[in-house]
Design goal:
By secondary structure, the chain is an all-beta fold. The protein is 0% helix and 48% strand. Strands 2, 4, 5, 6, 9, 10 and 11 form a 7-stranded mixed β-sheet that branches. 33% of the residues are buried.
Length: 123
C-alpha cells in the first residue's frame, strides 16, 4: 500500500485558482493510476479526475471539465490538480488516491487514499 499526502488546499474567492499536490511514497508509484476525489459535508465522496500511469490519458467529471487539470510527475512521485475558475460548489475535502488499474473512476478501484485537504470557495 502506498502512503499519500495532499497539500495545497485553502480558502479562495469564486473565480480563483488553487493547485493541489499529492506526494506518494514507494518505489512503485509509476505503476499506479492516480485519481482525485472530493467530499462535501453531508454528501458522498465523488470522483473528480484521474490519470493513467504514464500521464498520457486523463478523465474528468463533467462539472470540472475545462476548469480542472490533473497531471503527474513520476520523477517526483507527485500528482497535481490545477483548479481554475473555482465555484462555491467546488467546496469540499479533496482526496488523492492510487489504483492498480490502468485507469479508474470508481472509489472501490482505488486501494490507497490520502487524508485529504480542505478547499473552500467563497462567493
Amino acid at each position: 500500500q502506498m502512503r499519500l499526502v495532499e497539500s495545497g488546499g485553502g480558502l479562495v474567492l469564486a473565480g480563483g485558482s488553487l493547485r493541489l499536490s499529492c506526494a506518494a511514497s514507494g518505489r512503485t508509484y509509476g505503476s499506479y493510476a492516480m485519481g482525485w476525489f472530493r467530499q462535501a459535508p453531508g454528501k458522498e465522496r465523488e470522483f473528480v479526475a484521474a490519470i493513467t500511469r504514464s500521464g498520457g490519458n486523463t478523465v474528468y467529471r463533467d462539472s470540472v471539465k475545462g476548469r480542472f487539470t490533473i497531471s503527474r510527475d513520476n520523477a517526483k512521485n507527485t500528482v497535481y490538480l490545477q483548479m481554475n475558475g473555482l465555484k462555491p460548489e467546488d467546496t469540499a475535502v479533496y482526496y488523492c488516491a492510487a489504483s492498480p488499474l490502468p485507469i479508474a473512476t470508481v472509489k472501490a478501484d482505488f486501494g490507497s487514499w490520502g487524508q485529504g485537504t480542505q478547499v473552500t470557495v467563497s462567493s
